[in-house]
Amino acid sequence: MKIELLSIFDGLFSVNTKEKKPEKSTAKIFMTDTHTNSGRTLMIEEETYAVWAYLLSTDKEDIDFDGFLCAVIDPKFSGVNSHKNILERRDAPLPALYANRYSYVKNLKKKDIKIHWQEEHVTIFIKKKVYLIMDLNTKTSYSKGLADDCDYGKQLKS
Predict the structure, then answer these.
(1) 125 DSSP β-pair partners
(2) How far apart are CA 115 and CA 27, in angstroms?
(3) Distance between CA atoms of 63 and 41, rounded to whole angstroms?
(4) Tens digits of residue pLDDT in 1-16
(5) Secondary structure of residue 129 in the 3-state scheme
(6) Residue 65 dihedral angles phi and psi, to the nearest 5°
(7) How many angstroms separate the CA atoms of 84 and 98, rounded?
(8) What digits encode the pLDDT tens for the residues 46-81?
């Protein structure tokens, strides 16, 4: 009841104020999936320059390990051409040196991503193609979007 009264009050006394224009919204990808047998949770999140997959620890308090899924900005045009010791990979674009034709996925949508759990690994598909395999035993990620092994992960070889 208190909220309803405050809404009415707001409506009556805010007629002379300018309405805020809705902010332009860019929907970023965020999704989670929990394996029914093991209880492990995978989180996929679009960061500033890339989409990352995070396998959470069994207590879901920390990240066990992560994997580079793809770039959301074309690495060829990011201006990063050489590998530097990048401490926070998610805050820096993928260096063009490690990019290949699968690194950048244009107009990626949540519906394009599928997750398939198996006993020893998780496979993530983009548009029905394998893009990332996360090995649960070795805590190693293999990405189709990497031209070579680097700080972002290991290359998924066909």
Answers:
(1) 114, 130
(2) 20
(3) 10
(4) 444 434 444 454 444 4
(5) strand
(6) -160, 170
(7) 12
(8) 998 899 999 998 888 899 999 999 999 888 876 654
